[in-house]
Amino acid sequence: MTEPARHDLNELIVLAAAAVGKVDRFGPRGATLVSRDEIEAMAVLLACLGLTPILPGTTRAEAEALGRALTDFFNTHFNGGSDGL
Description:
By secondary structure, this protein is an all-alpha fold. It is about 70% helix and about 0% strand. The chain has five helices and no strands. It has helices spanning about 10-25, 30, 35-50, 60-80, 80-85. Helix 1 (about 10-25) crosses helix 3. The protein is globular and about 35 Å long.
């Protein structure tokens, strides 16, 4: 059975945006200020946007293949990919 949702969509967005704000404002130091809940919210939102997780134990070749597929996905859906972000 799945765990009940801890946060609604609005809370996830606020938590994720707060994390991005810390990193944007303080750079690498901001990454040390991000809470566990904020990291979890960012991960959930990325998954909702179509980012496929690379699970522990995935081989490097599998991860690189998935990375290429994800780059294609982002280039198609977000108009630019890694070079245009």
